[in-house]
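Quick start: read one record
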Amino acid sequence: MTTLAKSPPLKTKSSDRIYNFSAGPAVLPEEVIHQAQQDIWNIFGSGIGIMEHSHRGPVFDRVIDEAKADCRAIASIADDYEVLFLQGGATTQFAMIPMNYLSPETVADYPDTGVWTTKAIKEAKYFGKVNVAFEGSKIGYTHVPSDAEIKQSPNAVYLHYCSNNTIYGTRYNKPPTTKAPLIVDASSEIFSRPIDVKKHALIYAGAQKNLGPSGVVLVIIRKDFIERGKKDLPSMFSYANHAKNDSRLNTPPTFGIYVMGQVFKWIIKNGGLQALERRNADKAKLIHDAIDQSGGFYKGVARPDSRSHMNITFRTASEDLDKKFVAESAKLAMDGLKGHRDAGGMRASVYNAFPKEGCKVLADFMKDFASRNG
């Protein structure tokens, strides 16, 4: 094993907020949290907190209208798309999508790149035929497929993919090429980089990783695709009904929508998606470099050409050493670094709101840990 030079003393946080590497629910912008503290008590000078306002009153009208307008501005979403805020998170979308668009006589394409696509495939099979267009389990989910590796059906009613795989730390550098309507689960990287909305019929993302608290999902869906949905569905499972009722078919998760709207404002204030992409690439590079320059002490789970900027997965030579790494990092104000049970090792989730300084602290610790245990 290569012996590494001893690192300088580690710099840790001095405040009562520690570095939160959790995969979700995850870190939020601190200024959004501070604003929420005020608005929980009294929003817009109304004398009532955001969680107490009627979802059909003028105050919440303003909240949801601003959230939709800011979302459209961030991603350049045209008028031929609806922006919806729904309940149930991404997991409900796993069933809602095939419920609306798949039938026993039709087929949908699903490249399987990890746990969440596996779950989506299972849900889709309740409603129709599923073509597993790429079997990532055969290669340990170490990379996402190229277009040539995706075996598409000639008449698929849609192609569903997950753009960033939280558990294994892989991502698509660009959307798959297909003639079928393209649907993406973007939960763990939504608005971390520019997204070509026009290439997609439907984009969805659970909020709890990059947009807000758990319990709400953002859905961006083309209007003509809404109209293709089945008409004989329970009300709560129809995209058309949610669109007609402005995401208020029933009482929505008002606080979650409010926080998401505040995060949208934070994204705009911080330069938009191109600026965030540059910032996220710089943050991820600090940790990826610590892996690559460790002389083999750390091994990345993801193949370099598929590495995520949001979820960085790696391991040492043994489970015992992995456990020691997690335990020692926790003592230095770094939380949530234990890898998912399906991937093992460690996982650093460094979403939009995660500070670059925290990535540097982790990278320095990785070098120090390797020098002491190599």
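Residues 272-373 form a domain with the Aspartate Aminotransferase, domain 1 fold (CATH 3.90.1150.10).
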